[in-house]
């Protein structure tokens, strides 16, 4: 029986889809059988981030409405054998699926896969409620900004109310040089405010944009710093104890400069 | 211009991260109290229980709220007192000091 993990945030545009694509790819490259479910009905994105947009025939709504079998709607990843995507429908809206249908769908998926990662839409309405319905674990993504952290707090409260396992936090788009200047909240600030466990910190990284352009998750690029962070989070999801990268300490060069009194 | 110079020389005392954290702290007090309307209601009921040991109060007129003053959040309770009890059930001695 696989685990069902929802990736959520409250605020839009903080990196849920990017995170789902990268962690799914990460877990699959560690040999796990993984399926990614896009529940952002009407605004599907996960297919393009994964580079699978041209292969879609059926989608999640086709499955729940019985127009096809679940297997027919699953799209196999281009690169990894054991990675699949269940795309969202692009013409309907969040009310096209119910909580019960999501619970049924995820319980079917967890029979087949070791990890079911659910990409949640922004907001706290129907789409969010559906996305968390069949999940027992949640990862909350935030960026180091007031509005994103505030919304993360709201989401954490709603997850608590739904009696899910305590969620774990992913801080995305951290900019170490701004943190050092005191112009961005640091990791400790956010953990103190949100009072949940951290599972990883992903730095701001232009490779994310490049890899999204190409439709290849950044985790596959060994030069990407965000990719490195996602590789660590993938292992932590498997229960490994991986030390946190100290992004705030600065790059190797800036540390040398500091030692020599130049920076 | 002066502001620019002050900032240039790093005298713009509160770094923006500190401002962000402080604003978050304040806004979340309200958000969290708002998300669980039960919080204030159950606090109110507990207050009534405790205070009624000492005073007769008008429980219908009792108001409990969080207010925002300057840079602090305060719990404000307005509790109309009907009469002070002549005797009260003292469970522990230090009750006098409360
Ligand atoms: N670590 C990062 N560094 C640089 N850019 C990033 C990073 N993470 C995300 N982005 C960019 O931010 C944008 C939003 O990311 P993404 O689509 O993953 O967010 P989302 O939370 O899924 O948004 P939505 O709420 O609309 O579904 C994208 O353009 C993505 O490329
Ligand atoms: Mg998204």
TrEMBL record, chain A:
One Gene Ontology CC term in the entry: cytosol
Domain AAA: 3-158
Chain's role: ATPase required for the correct placement of the division site. Cell division inhibitors MinC and MinD act in concert to form an inhibitor capable of blocking formation of the polar Z ring septums. Rapidly oscillates between the poles of the cell to destabilize FtsZ filaments that have formed before they mature into polar Z rings.
Record's keyword annotation contains Phosphoprotein: no
Name of the protein in its database record: Septum site-determining protein MinD
SUPFAM superfamilies: P-loop containing nucleoside triphosphate hydrolases
One Pfam match: AAA_31
Family: Belongs to the ParA family. MinD subfamily.
NCBIfam families assigned to the protein according to its UniProt record, in alphabetical order: minD_bact
Swiss-Prot/TrEMBL keywords: ATP-binding, Cell cycle, Cell division, Nucleotide-binding, Septation
Gene Ontology biological-process entries: division septum assembly; negative regulation of cell division
InterPro entries, alphabetized: AAA_dom, MinD, MinD_FleN, P-loop_NTPase, ParA/MinD_ATPase
Organism domain of life: Bacteria
Lineage, opening ranks: Bacteria, Bacillati, Bacillota, Clostridia, Neomoorellales
Binding-site residues, ATP: 11-18
GO molecular function: ATP binding; ATP hydrolysis activity
From TrEMBL, chain B:
One Pfam family, short name: MinE
Domain of life: Bacteria
UniProt keyword annotations, A-Z: Cell cycle, Cell division
Record-level GO BP terms: cell division; regulation of division septum assembly
Coiled coil (UniProt feature): none
Transmembrane segments: none
The keyword Lipid metabolism is assigned to this record: no
Gene3D superfamilies: Cell division topological specificity factor MinE
Family statement drawn from the similarity comment of this UniProt entry: Belongs to the MinE family.
Function recorded in the entry: Prevents the cell division inhibition by proteins MinC and MinD at internal division sites while permitting inhibition at polar sites. This ensures cell division at the proper site by restricting the formation of a division septum at the midpoint of the long axis of the cell.
Name listed for the protein in its UniProt record: Cell division topological specificity factor
Source organism (scientific name): Neomoorella thermoacetica (Clostridium thermoaceticum)
Lineage of the species this protein comes from: Bacteria, Bacillati, Bacillota, Clostridia, Neomoorellales
């Amino acid at each position: 029986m696989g685990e069902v993990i929802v990736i959520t945030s409250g605020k839009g545009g903080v990196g849920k889809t990017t995170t789902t694509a990268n962690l799914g790819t990460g877990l699959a490259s560690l040999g796990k059988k993984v399926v990614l479910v896009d529940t952002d009905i009407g605004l599907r994105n996960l297919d393009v981030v994964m580079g699978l947009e041209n292969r879609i025939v059926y989608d999640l709504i086709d499955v729940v409405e019985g127009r096809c079998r679940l297997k027919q709607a699953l799209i196999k990843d281009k690169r990894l054998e054991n990675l699949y995507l269940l795309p969202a429908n692009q013409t309907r809206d969040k009310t096209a699926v119910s909580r019960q249908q999501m619970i049924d769908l995820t319980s079917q998926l967890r029979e087949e896969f070791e990890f079911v990662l659910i990409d949640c839409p922004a907001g706290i309405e129907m789409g969010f409620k559906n996305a968390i319905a069949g999940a027992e674990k949640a990862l909350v993504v935030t960026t180091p900004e007031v509005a994103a952290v505030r919304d993360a707090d709201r989401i954490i409260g709603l997850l608590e109310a739904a009696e899910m396992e305590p969620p774990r936090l992913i801080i995305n788009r951290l900019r170490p040089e701004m943190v050092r200047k005191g112009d961005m909240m640091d990791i400790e600030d956010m953990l103190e405010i949100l009072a949940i466990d951290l599972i990883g910190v992903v730095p701001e990284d232009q490779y994310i944009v490049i890899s999204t352009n190409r439709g290849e998750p950044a985790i596959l690029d060994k030069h990407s710093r965000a990719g490195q962070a996602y590789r660590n989070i993938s292992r932590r999801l498997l229960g490994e104890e991986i030390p946190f990268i100290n992004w705030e300490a600065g790059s190797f060069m800036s540390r040398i400069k500091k030692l020599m009194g130049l920076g | 211009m002066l502001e620019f110079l002050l900032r240039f020389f790093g005298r713009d005392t509160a770094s923006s991260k500190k401002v962000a954290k402080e604003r978050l702290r304040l806004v979340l007090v309200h958000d969290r109290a708002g998300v669980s309307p039960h919080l204030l209601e159950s606090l109110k009921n507990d207050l009534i229980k405790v205070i009624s040991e000492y005073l007769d109060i008008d429980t219908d007129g009792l108001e409990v709220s969080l207010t925002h003053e300057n840079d602090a959040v305060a719990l404000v309770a307005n509790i109309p007192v009907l009469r002070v009890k002549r005797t009260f059930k003292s469970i522990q001695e230090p009750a006098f000091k409360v």
